[in-house]
Amino acid sequence: MSNQATTLLSIESLINSHDAKLSTLSKELSVQKEMLSNILENDEEYVKLAAEAGKLAKQKTIAKQKVLHTQNAISVVEKTKDLQSQLKELKVAMSDYLSQYVSLSGTNQFEGADGVTRQITFSAKLIKKND
Q: Model's pTM, two decimal places?
């Protein structure tokens, strides 16, 4: 077996063990959150204040919707959505360009127009494939 194949098997093993640990910790975290929720639900003072906060939150939401339906707010909301969309598109394009740069240059560093050297990093995660 080649060194590369051995390394690949080792990495696959690490991925599987970390994936299992992530699953275990996520389940444990869920249990702890539920326990905390139960503790809070059994505290009379908290329940009373949470109910009051809920009423205030509803009033806040209604007031916010009234403000957001004014002409001035509508134009700002539209501009905000447009800018967020442009930002998302630019980030996707930047990621593609950086990936190509690393692939072509063989380095994960890039010197910007401002003279500052930046490191190119990538983040990967496992997502279950839907058949």
A: 0.60
